[in-house]
Write a structure and sequence with these properties.
12 strands, binds 2-acetamido-2-deoxy-beta-D-glucopyranose, alpha/beta, 25% helix, single chain, 12 helices, Alkaline Phosphatase, subunit A, globular, two-stranded parallel sheet
Length: 381
């Protein structure tokens, strides 16, 4: 047996050899294991999340999203860790990001709209704008975000520089923190947690039913490239897939990217559905259905019958439910696949909205008459 550190070193060295110019750094393991705390993660944990009873979903009881950064489909597909993981899950060959740059995609995955945003500048979104956590809280479904190298829980700063002088954490990659409905509520803010908390939550088997994972600016590939992010996956995600406190028979995991790298082509990103909830006969298969980041909302809404936000999560063009989930619940998707004429989602800055200074439009009221994958508008459900 090669000891884990040595094999990681070897992987780092191989990635460096094969990927050429994009890899600028050799992967450095941030902790002894993904289940361990580390002084590198800065703030000491405040203990694990309280235990809450599992609210059963129709197809899965836990949904985990792990977002990496800025990579074209073909570049991810060339990495051996993606090839290996694709054999254990469903590869989504029609999954698109929504726009450029990073931040609007994260914000959209929380609130069902990117509000015209086309920058990574710090924004705040009024308290009467709902997000997925309003829907989850209404049903008692526990949730959290885990932000690597965020120094303290619910940290509101734009970024954080570690004692080594490197800025590993940036707020622009945190989907919920910009929503006043979250950042003005201390109980909710405490659920935006760091990786030392993750270690306690996984160790004490208190990981929530919905959570979002943001690796730091190096580990997600943003500052380093896909070879480095692949090494991080081998260090972090691959062993956790075998950990019953993380991946149960009822866990669905989405591994994806915020956006692609080449803005001159449509915004296709490499995504895989993993975890015990993926039916064994579908492991190693490819699903060509057209998905976007809004599909993360509709799949969760469909699974727990949560209703909808009345935003783009209710736009039938953009928000197909992951097909194996739709098949199990009887939900009908729109039939669009990567073979059909898809909307261009590489358009930046020309979508009107309240966060677009060049094309301003008021905050869009939710469409309360829309019926989506989880039923009607969530207030009236
Ligand atoms: C469980 O959480 C407590 C604090 O809540 C912590 O002291 C302990 O180390 C954690 N256990 C594991 C295995 O992570
Ligand atoms: C999806 O369709 C586009 C446009 O036809 C094509 O360039 C791309 O290679 C397709 N993606 C996959 C994974 O086949
Ligand atoms: C834990 O709570 C203490 C006291 O409120 C705080 O100083 C510390 O930053 C917190 N740690 C984290 C990781 O948030
Ligand atoms: C971090 O945030 C501060 C305050 O907003 C800003 O001045 C600085 O440029 C930011 N640094 C990085 C590396 O983003
Ligand atoms: C978006 O991608 C299409 C090709 O799929 C390309 O024709 C177009 O120029 C791109 N748009 C931008 C703004 O780069
Ligand atoms: C739904 O999405 C399509 C594709 O992006 C867009 O053209 C359309 O305007 C959207 N509909 C609404 C009601 O926002
Ligand atoms: C939210 O509040 C603002 C005023 O702060 C108001 O203009 C807007 O219509 C409200 N939006 C909704 C969806 O209630
Ligand atoms: C709201 O949703 C309904 C039902 O899908 C649709 O008929 C209507 O056009 C939508 N309204 C707006 C303003 O998009």
């Amino acid at each position: 047996m090669i000891p884990p550190r040595a094999s990681l070193f070897l992987l780092g060295a191989l990635a460096k050899l094969t990927s050429g110019a994009t890899t600028t750094a050799t992967f450095t393991q941030p902790a002894a294991a993904p289940t361990d705390t580390s002084s590198f993660y800065v703030g000491a944990s405040n203990g694990s999340l309280p235990y809450t009873a599992t609210v059963p979903g129709l197809v899965f009881d836990r949904f985990i999203q792990v977002w990496l950064e800025n990579t074209d489909y073909s570049a991810a597909a060339a990495q051996s860790v993606f090839q290996t993981l694709s054999q254990e899950g469903i590869t989504l060959s029609g999954y698109y990001s929504l726009t450029h740059p990073s931040q609007p995609n994260y914000v959209a995955a929380a609130g069902g709209n990117f509000w015209g945003l086309a920058s990574d500048d710090e924004v705040t979104i009024p308290a009467n704008v709902s997000t997925i956590v309003d829907l989850l809280d209404a049903k008692g479904i526990s949730w959290a975000e885990y932000e690597e190298n965020m120094p303290t829980d619910g940290y509101l700063g734009d970024n954080f520089t570690n004692p080594d002088g490197y800025t590993y954490y940036k707020r622009k990659h945190s989907p919920l923190v910009s929503y006043d409905s979250v950042n003005q509520d201390p109980a909710r803010l405490a659920r935006i947690r760091n990786f030392n908390d993750f270690a306690y939550d996984v160790g004490n088997n208190t990981l929530p039913q919905w959570f979002f994972v943001t690796p730091n600016m190096k580990d997600d590939g943003h500052d380093t490239g896909i070879a480095y992010a692949s090494d991080w996956l081998n260090y972090w995600l691959v062993p956790l897939l075998q950990d019953p406190n993380f991946n149960t028979a009822r866990t669905l995991i989405l591994l994806t990217f915020d956006e692609n790298g080449n803005h001159a082509i449509n915004n296709e990103i490499y995504s895989i559905l993993l975890g015990g909830a993926v039916p064994s006969n579908l492991r190693g298969t490819i699903d060509n259905t057209f998905y976007t980041h809004y599909s993360t909302l509709t799949t969760v809404q469909n699974n727990w019958k949560l209703g909808n936000l009345g935003q783009q999560d209710c736009n039938a063009t953009l928000a197909n439910v992951f097909q194996f989930v739709a098949d199990a619940t009887g939900y009908k998707n729109n039939g669009m696949t990567n073979g059909t004429n898809l909307p261009l989602l590489n358009i930046t800055g020309t979508i009107p909205g309240p966060l677009n200074p060049d094309y301003w439009a008021p905050w869009p009221a939710p469409n309360t008459s829309c019926v989506g994958a989880g039923g009607g508008f969530f207030w009236s459900k």
